[in-house]
Write a sequence for this structure.
């Protein structure tokens, strides 16, 4: 029965998935991959068997879900060497044919229509090598007009598309699920204007964040956001995912710093909202819909962003704390005593530090002894001596009070970079260590480490649980590292993590977005009414659902 | 001038002092710009730090002291008032005291060497450590000049330093173009440090706290009776010419033509 369903659905993702495809479940058995999840709930006596041999769970307390359970159930997490849910390809989407390819070649030129297998291989796979699509075509438009033409055509032909930037997303939102056409804005990488008085930068969406930072550096300005992926990520992608990063505590989120943007909607309509004004209260501020919409409402083609003057005095301290309570108190004290010069407050635990020391070259623990928690405090100001004294005085007082057990202050930019390398290198180290289950949660600051401890107790020896992140923003990056992916482990982690977060009214995705990974988990953090309105807006702006399908919003809301 | 001083001093390690010269320079990671009037490099509103090679020199001195071969490490810096920040960094790393020779002039290596010689005459160190060169002028001269003025042996570009307690000798591996050269130098001596000698320690909070109570003695060039007149005058500082972008040629003939008539290399 299930076999027939799979055959009919056309191309679906198969990626080293040992259990599902090979084992044919009969009516009463359940495939190995779901057994962990299923057994967990079966033991709770809350499973209900459907006639076709699939199980569903009545534990999920949101009415919307139980209504669409049939749809929902066709998903089994397959964590062979990928983590793709077995989603059905929307049968209403057309398939690419040679006429389409010729048309694209006509409007973009032969060079910018990519069918080459190797390049597609890279474009189809996400940064974590967790998700892989099977797109046969990648398009490289050079300007907004071309993007509009592409989308107009795709909408009329009902061809699904995936907007793509630097492909550094961590929730599978930037790669195709099936054979969606990839629209990569990498060629749209020009800086259009920069006002040295107001600091407003206008640029195309394909500009790499680090390149923008370098450009601004020559003018004496800095970008209001900074993240580990800066060498590859595009500003369009940053805006579309409402990226947070290391400096949010000082400069705020993109909802505040983006002054305007230009986007193209599904039918090719170009929305020029590219204002450069700090204040503009004329009508509904629609750009906010696009910021964080992860490419599901439109493709961002230009961005206008407010940049900050580069201040000369930057100081960085690497601190060791005995327990999480000290970290919290230190945060409170830092906000009060360092106040206007505080520009970053990050934390990492001992497990994260060990991982980095083991897997990355040329890093050493700045603090002489091993401690339970490490904090990075950065200050940015205009007066070198003053800031230095302020930071030293604050840290020495914290040392005396016992909040801090040890610490070092970077003496030059080189030392500062090596401190940042430790914090920014954790993601890379996790990739090298093997399989990683990655969660990005917003929680009240006092609860942040409780989930790490709880999960550690729950998983025992099965995996290494790490907690690190933007403590200043209440954002935890919870990562579970194991030698290989395994369903038993997944079953212990999900939905435990989401339920734990939901119970504390936290967010199951603080800054990474929902992508394809958490498309069906939105109800843990948003009410059904809110999500229903989101679905209405999506249907309004993209009636055929061609923009980045299968992502962001639950599949149950869109009947095929 | 006979260095009878070096003969009469029996370098008992328990009383040996090490003098380390540290220079305040534009931070290594900063992209430097030439001032519009071409008199030098822009240093206003630019991050300044201790010269990386001086950091290595100080680190080596501290390790020697911690190994029990020296009693005291003295950090010395010559320059404007902000040099005190550099000295504080040195004290935070572990130096025992600092000497700041205050001047607003920018001195060239020979003048610095004369100042260091005067200080050495006063302090009588058993070792003088310097970085092999400063990253702002890349002169690589000061250490050698100090040794010559004092009549002391020198071991430059050190990548390894081993002290012999009994024989009063330092065995130094030097990084030279052909590989490594090992020298034995009698103490007192001047050693300049190269990159691979060690990895400098970070300034830890407890040490930063201790450093606040360590003394920094202020001196002037007049105190040391040094003749600061320079034989060299810097006329102009310019950026190197910008690299021209490459040109695609369509044939071998065109290539030969360009090599002959434009690049003048054939």
């Amino acid at each position: 029965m299930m076999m027939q369903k799979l055959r009919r659905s056309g191309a679906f993702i198969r990626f080293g998935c040992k259990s599902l495809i090979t084992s044919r479940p009969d009516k009463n058995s359940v495939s190995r991959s779901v057994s962990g999840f299923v057994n967990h709930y079966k033991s709770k006596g809350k499973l209900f068997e459907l006639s076709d041999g699939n199980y569903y769970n009545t534990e999920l307390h949101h009415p919307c879900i139980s209504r669409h359970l049939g749809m929902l159930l066709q998903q089994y997490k397959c964590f062979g060497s990928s983590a793709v849910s077995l989603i059905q390809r929307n049968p209403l989407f057309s398939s690419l044919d040679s006429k389409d390819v010729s048309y694209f070649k006509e409007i973009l030129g032969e060079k910018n229509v990519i069918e080459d297998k190797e390049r597609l291989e890279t474009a189809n796979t996400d940064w974590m090598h967790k998700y892989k699509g099977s797109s046969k075509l990648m398009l490289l438009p050079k300007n907004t007009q071309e993007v509009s033409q592409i989308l107009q055509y795709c909408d009329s032909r009902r061809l699904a598309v995936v907007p793509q930037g630097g492909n550094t997303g961590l929730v599978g939102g930037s790669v195709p699920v099936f054979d969606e056409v990839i629209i990569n804005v990498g060629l749209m990488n020009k800086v259009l204007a920069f006002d040295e008085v107001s600091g407003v930068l206008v640029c195309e969406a394909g500009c790499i964040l680090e390149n923008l930072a370098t450009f601004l550096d020559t003018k004496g300005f800095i970008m209001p956001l900074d993240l580990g992926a800066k060498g590859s990520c595009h500003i369009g992608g940053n805006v579309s995912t409402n990226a947070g990063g290391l400096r949010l505590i000082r400069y705020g989120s993109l909802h505040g710093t983006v002054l305007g943007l230009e986007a193209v909607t599904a039918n090719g309509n170009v929305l020029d909202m590219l204002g450069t004004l700090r204040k503009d209260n004329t009508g509904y501020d629609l750009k906010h819909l696009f910021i964080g919409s992860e490419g599901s409402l439109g493709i961002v083609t230009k961005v206008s962003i407010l940049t900050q003057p580069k201040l000369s005095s930057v100081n960085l301290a690497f601190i060791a704390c005995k327990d999480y309570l000290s970290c919290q108190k230190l945060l409170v004290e830092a906000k009060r005593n360092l106040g206007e010069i505080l520009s970053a407050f990050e934390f990492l635990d001992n497990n994260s530090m060990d991982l980095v020391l083991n897997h990355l070259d040329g890093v050493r623990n700045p603090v002489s002894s091993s401690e339970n928690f490490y904090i990075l405090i950065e200050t940015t100001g205009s007066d070198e001596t003053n800031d230095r004294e302020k930071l030293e005085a604050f840290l020495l007082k914290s040392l005396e009070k016992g909040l801090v057990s040890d610490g070092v202050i970077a003496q030059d930019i080189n030392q500062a970079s090596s401190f940042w390398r430790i914090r920014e290198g954790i993601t890379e180290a996790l990739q090298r260590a093997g399989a990683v289950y990655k969660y990005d949660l917003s929680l009240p600051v006092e609860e942040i480490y409780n989930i790490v401890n709880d999960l550690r107790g729950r998983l025992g020896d099965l995996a290494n649980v790490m907690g690190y992140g933007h403590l200043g923003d209440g954002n935890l990056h919870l990562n579970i590292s194991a030698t290989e992916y395994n369903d038993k482990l997944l079953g212990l982690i999900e939905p435990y993590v989401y339920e734990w977060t939901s119970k504390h009214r936290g967010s199951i995705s603080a800054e990474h977005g929902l992508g394809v990974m958490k498309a069906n988990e939105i109800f843990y953090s948003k009410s059904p009414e809110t999500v229903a309105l989101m679905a209405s807006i999506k249907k309004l702006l993209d009636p055929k659902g061609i923009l980045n399908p299968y992502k962001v919003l639950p599949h149950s809301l869109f009947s095929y | 001038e006979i260095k009878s001083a070096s003969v009469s001093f029996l370098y008992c390690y328990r009383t040996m002092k090490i003098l380390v010269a540290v220079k305040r320079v534009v931070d290594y990671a900063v992209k430097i710009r030439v001032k519009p009037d071409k008199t030098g490099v822009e240093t206003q509103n630019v991050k300044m730090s201790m010269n990386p090679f001086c950091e290595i020199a100080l680190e080596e001195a501290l390790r020697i002291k911690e190994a029990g071969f020296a009693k005291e490490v003295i950090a010395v810096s010559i320059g404007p008032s902000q040099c005190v920040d550099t000295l504080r960094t040195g004290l935070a790393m572990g130096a025992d005291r600092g000497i700041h020779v205050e001047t607003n002039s920018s001195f060239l290596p020979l003048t610095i060497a004369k100042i260091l010689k005067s200080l050495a005459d006063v302090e009588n160190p058993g070792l003088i450590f310097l970085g092999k060169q400063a990253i702002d002028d890349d002169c690589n001269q000061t250490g050698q000049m100090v040794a010559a003025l004092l009549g002391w042996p020198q071991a430059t570009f050190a990548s390894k330093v081993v002290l012999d307690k009994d024989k009063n000798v330092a065995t130094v591996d030097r990084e030279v173009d052909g590989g490594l050269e090992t020298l034995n130098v009698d103490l007192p001596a001047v050693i300049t440090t190269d990159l691979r000698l060690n990895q400098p320690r970070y300034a830890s909070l407890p040490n930063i706290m201790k450093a606040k109570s360590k003394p920094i003695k202020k001196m002037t060039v007049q105190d040391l009776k040094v003749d600061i007149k320079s034989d060299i005058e810097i006329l102009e500082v310019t950026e190197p010419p910008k690299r021209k972008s490459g040109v695609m040629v369509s044939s071998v003939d065109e290539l030969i033509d360009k090599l002959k008539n434009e690049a003048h290399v054939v």
Notes: The first helix of chain A runs from residue 2 to 8. Chain A touches chain B through 29 residues (CB under 8 Å).
